[in-house]
Amino acid sequence: MEYLFTTANVIFFVIAVLISVGLIELYFYLHFKLYDKKYYIIIPVLSLVFFGVVISFLNIYSTKILIYFAIWEMFFSYLCVRYVKGKNYLPYMLIAPAVIGLMMLLLYPFLFEIYLSFTDLKLTTIMQWKETGKLPFVGLKQYINVFKLPPLSETTFWQLFGRTLLWTFSNVFFHVLGGLLLALMLIEIKNLRGVYRMFLIIPWAMPQVVAVLSLRGEFHSEYGFVNIMIKKLIAAFPFLTQLGIGPVNWLSDHPLLTCTLINIWLGIPFMMVVILGGLQSISQSYYDAATIDGASYLQKLKYITLPLLKPVVLPAITLGTIWTFNNINIIYLVTGQAGGTERADILVSALYKAAFVYNRYSYSAAFAMIIFVILFLITTSYSKMIKVDN
Amino acid sequence: MNKKLKPFFLHLFIIIAVIIATYPLIRIFSVSIRPGDRIISTDLSIIPDGASFISYIKLFKETYFLRWIFNSLLITFATSFIGVSLASTAAYAFSRYRFVGKKWGLQLLLLSQMIPAGMLILPLYLMIMKLNLINTYLGMVIAYSVSSLPFSIWILKGYYDTIPHSLEEAAMVDGANELQAFYRIILPLSTPALSITFLFNFTTAWNEYLVARVVLYNPQNYTWTLGLFELQGQFITQWGMFTAGSIIITIPVLLIFLYSSKWLVSGLTLGSVKG
């Protein structure tokens, strides 16, 4: 088993991180600085040797990677000698480390995911793949399977899709509504606003894992405070039972509702802070003018506040929609334990479970591509809609 | 509405909202100081009878809690450092220079934000597995390091845009070259934006759970998120230790967040409005 443990290893690790960032910068600096010198040929050769040493040191040495790197080296040196002359290379040098990082850890995994979705990688073939690197090509089979076979043990794709829309819409709606109400009330309060604001953003400030896990406990049917409160309320006002209010088995009977309630609690402060910022930037003179004209509170709200809040709220809603759509954390933390229900799963959490609980790697790659297309369509059409509106 | 009643109702509603917002945290605290034999009960009092810190002591004695925090800190600092150092230079290039692919680059950065969060976990996991880095810090850092890079670049670019060009020109008249003008003049001036970016990277990695779940499997190598999830347990929840751990994690995070929230929000909206 490999893990870095001793103090020496930890120090080594920290230094390695620092050095590797420095080395990438140095690599580009040398190339751009020395391309017109006679001994320039040393630089690519040296970096190739160095790269070989590093990957053999990291236990991932393979000739294939080395050949790829050599090709890149040749290409890059050619670029330097041919094109850099007289041009300002500084911007390229400045973005190079970020571009390399993004290409290796964002673009490459993304392309690899596409490739994976046309193959058949599952628990039975993964060891073979690890040793030989070969995968059977199956064409569009995985994409058809996403719609034919349920992504989880019984929930189908379309159920998940509907649930995702419901989840996203209800959460964003209540976030904006709650945030707007609280911000409108806070702006009216002159003293103590800062204190209230500080307490109100606590749900946002708490680490999400802590908040979700402890609230999950509070929805326990017997020892969670939600049901204890309901029982106390019924004891105080017995007529409530006739209205159908009583203790609920939150986690087992209404898992999606529980997740939604938790997420609403978590998400309101962000919207509140954004909207409050927007409200504070609206000039008081508009309201004074409206007051002179005899406008009521609701009229001011409709004709001054809401239109002027639009440029602040619309981007926040876009962000919130993407965040909520993508929120695996809450649903997985609430229902992800062994024996957890799958009746609360939305697309992204089903994707996570399909990959890491059911170990259907290629299937979930195809599933992920479909989710990506859906999210892409939603956000682009939404931002088009905003642009048309403006 | 009556002039005197209005503020009363406003304060009343806000105070109810404050109670809803803070009650769960208070409740975590009150469970964490319950005496050992009464951890599971329907008691609602904030300071329970016979309150004790036994759960905290048990937490440090019976679990690897300090180890988890240490692991988290190490991974988080490494990723934030990498993230900020990569973003600070890249954002400067995007802000100041015209070069081939600038417009495309910025668009691609925005597009990358649309990739579903769970989507890249699988290929990253397979990559890390192939590199034999499962269950190591290095594997975690590799998986985390660029996840908030696009967003950081946008925030920093927005900030650099507000610094006038004349500063660099003045520096260059005094004999500095372009690179020196960047790291002697612009970088020190951007400390507020850099610290926000650092904080943003830090909180993202600090609260991360899903990647850690698949990369780390040895209890000694867990990050605190995994550790707390394990304490909640598959079958028996260790409520006392779980809540004690939650309090220890939450209080510093809360203080830092409350202290910095003003700048954090302006950074977030800056990035999104510009996008």
Give a verbal description of the structure.
The complex is a heterodimer of chains A (390) and B (275). Chain A is mostly helical and 390 residues long. Chain A folds into 2 domains: 80 residues; 211 residues, MetI-like fold (Orthogonal Bundle). Chain A contains 18 helices and no strands. The termini of chain A are far apart. Chain B is mostly helical. Chain B has a single domain, classed as MetI-like (MetI-like fold, Orthogonal Bundle). Helix content of chain B is 72%, strand content 0%. Chain B has 13 helices and no strands. In chain B, α3 packs parallel to α6, α3 packs across α12 and α7 packs across α13. The longest helix of chain B has 36 residues. The C terminus of chain B is likely disordered.
What is the chain-wise order of helices and strands of chain B?
A: HHHHHHHHHHHHH
- Strand share of the residues of chain B? under 5%
Structural class of chain A: mainly alpha
What is the level-2 CATH architecture name of chain B?
Orthogonal Bundle
CATH class of chain B: Mainly Alpha
The number of helical elements of chain B comes to: 13
Q: What oligomeric state is this?
A: heterodimer
The CATH architecture of the largest domain in chain A can be given as Orthogonal Bundle
Shape of chain A: globular
By DSSP (H or I, 4+ residues per run), the number of helices of chain A equals 18
Structure at a glance:
The complex is a heterodimer of chains A (390) and B (275). With 390 residues, chain A is mainly α. Chain A has helices at residues 7-34, 42-57, 63-83, 90-117, 126-132, 141-148, 157-188, 193-200, 202-205, 208-218, 225-236, 250-253, 255-280, 284-292, 297-325, 329-335, 347-356, 361-389.
